[in-house]
């Protein structure tokens, strides 16, 4: 049997505190409508003086998206973003800058009739290595595209605006020693 702490000072959106029947083993349980926090990357490389953006396909609907996923306990958003880039796209690289490029919100489909709001912190990742084998290689495809092509083809809300932002700092990305 579980006991819930429903103190009057907790807001409806705050996690509930849960104990086992003996009052020990306290754990935090997020309410069903809580926002899921994720991290992702806009991965890029420079080919022939031009920036190319990596998009991957989603597993179920085959939409073109960026690598992203949950932020795991004990990890930072930037480290989680790099791990997702490796697992989903088979790439390794360096996060550019100390902060995310931006963020966006979407509705994550959990079950056929259930969704949850997810907020994704998006980091810029300069790709240094593209692997031939990676954990999700049989479930996804990779596409290297110009920024303009990526803006047109990405099927995630909020990503086109972040890619347009990237065009504004493109010179700094191409020539980091001058930025």
Structural account:
Helices cover 20% and strands 41% of the residues. It is α+β, with helices and mostly antiparallel strands and 179 residues long. It folds into two domains: 1-33, no CATH class; 36-178, Nucleoside Triphosphate Pyrophosphohydrolase, CATH 3.90.79.10. The strands form two sheets. Strands 4, 5, 6, 7, 8, 9, 10 and 11 form an eight-stranded mixed beta sheet that branches. Strand 2 and strand 3 (27-29) form a beta hairpin. Mean pLDDT is 82; it is low at 1-30.
List the helices and strands and how they pair.
Blueprint: E1 3-5, E2 16-19, E3 27-29, E4 36-47, E5 50-57, E6 64-65, E7 68-70, H1 77-89, E8 91-96, E9 102-111, E10 114-130, E11 142-146, H2 147-153, H3 159-168, H4 170-174
Parallel strand pairs: 4-10
Antiparallel strand pairs: 1-2, 2-3, 4-5, 4-7, 5-6, 5-11, 8-10, 9-10
Helix pairs in contact: 2-3
């Amino acid at each position: 049997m579980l006991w819930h702490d429903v103190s009057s000072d907790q807001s409806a959106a705050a996690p509930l505190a849960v104990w086992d029947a003996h009052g020990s083993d306290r754990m935090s349980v997020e309410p069903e409508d809580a926002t899921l926090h994720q991290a992702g990357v806009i991965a890029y490389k420079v080919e022939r003086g031009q920036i190319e953006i990596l998009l991957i396909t989603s597993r179920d609907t085959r939409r073109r998206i960026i690598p992203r996923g949950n932020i795991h306990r004990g990890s930072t958003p930037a480290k989680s973003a790099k791990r997702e880039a490796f697992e989903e796209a088979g790439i390794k690289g360096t996060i550019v800058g100390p902060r995310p490029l931006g963020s966006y919100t979407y509705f994550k489909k959990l079950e056929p009739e259930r969704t949850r709001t997810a907020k994704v912190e998006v980091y810029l990742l300069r790709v240094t290595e593209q692997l031939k084998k990676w954990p999700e290689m049989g479930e996804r495809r990779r596409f290297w595209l110009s920024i303009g092509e990526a803006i047109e083809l990405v099927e995630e809300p909020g990503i086109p605006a972040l890619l347009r932002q990237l065009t504004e700092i493109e010179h700094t990305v191409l020539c980091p020693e001058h930025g």
